[in-house]
# Entry
Amino acid sequence: MRKLSYLLAKAFILLFVAGVSAQTTIGNKPVIDSAQMLRRTRHVVDTLSLNIQKTQDRPTLINLYVRRGLGEGMLGHPDSAIYDYCAAIAIDSKLPEVYVYRSAQLQRIHKYAYAIGDLEMAISLLPNNPARASML
# Structure
C-alpha cells in the first residue's frame, strides 16, 4: 500500500509538471457545486457516448474515451471508467495520463497490484524521466 501511494504521488507530480492538470476550484471556492457538476457530467458522458459511436478519427476517439472515463469516474462508476481507459489504451498505449487515470479507478475497486502496474507504466512512458532509468 505504501508503494502504491508513493507511485501515485510520483506519477501525479510528473504529469502535473508535464502539463496534465485539471482545476475545479478558484481560490478556496468550487467553480460549481457538486450537484450541478454531476448533472453536467452525466450530460457530457451521454453526449460523449453518442460522439464515440460516430467517430473514426483515432486521436479524437482516444480523447472521447478518456473524457468519458473521467466523467464516469466522477459519477462513481469505476468499472465503466476502466472500460473507457482500456479502450483508449487499445488505440494508443503510449499515453501516460491514461494509465494514471485507470490506476485511480483500479484503486477504487481495490485492485492494487494492477494499479501499481499502471503507475509504473505511466512513469516509464514519460520522456526524460529520472525515475525511468531506475525502473529499468
Q: What stands out?
A: Strands lie at 25-26, 29-30. Helices lie at 2-17, 34-54, 58-74, 78-91, 96-108, 112-125, 130-135. Residues 34-54 form the longest helix (21 residues). Residues 16-26 have pLDDT under 50 and may be disordered.
